[in-house]
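SEQUENCE, STRUCTURE TOKENS:
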Amino acid sequence: MSFTLFIVLANALVSITALNNRDLFLKLDFQPYLIQRNNQWYRFISHAFVHADWGHLAVNMYVLYQFGKLVETYYEQLFPGMWQVYFVLLYLGGILFSTIPGYARNKENFNYHGVGASGAVSAVVFSFILMEPMAPLGIIFIPISMPAIVFGLLYLALEVYLDRNRKSNIAHSAHYFGGLFGVVFTVLIEPELVLQYLR
């Protein structure tokens, strides 16, 4: 079984269970106030296995499954013998790094809650974009595609804009911080990838 499929199944199991058990949901979600006051550091990871609803879970897991398989394949080719470790670090690092803005902004906010694997999924997607910058990418159900690097830059710009003009409960900063982690991590483990942008 691939790591991607294992992560998808783990997300589905925990999310579905938590959606049917409010107490469990609240014990696992991202609450910076409780992390700081009660040292509940596990929430930095556990929140990424809980989703707000079925749609949130379905979209995240669909994107993760599509891109995770590709990134696993590339990592296996680039880092034989170490690719499993690097893939896990990519995913977990995306979870942790994407929580930085939310934690910094809300550690005194008792009412703040966050859930979802979006930061980790963004890390995987942007790792792929770095490795295949000219691959055609588009949005689900919209029959328009563009080079992955263009899609990635537009996505980052949109998420930064939406984060600065916050009008919803979506943690847009988690999306672009996760994406940035995916790029930086992949460059650190394979600096040669940067050369393709200089040729």
Observations:
- Residues 3-197 form a domain with the Rhomboid-like fold fold (CATH 1.20.1540.10).
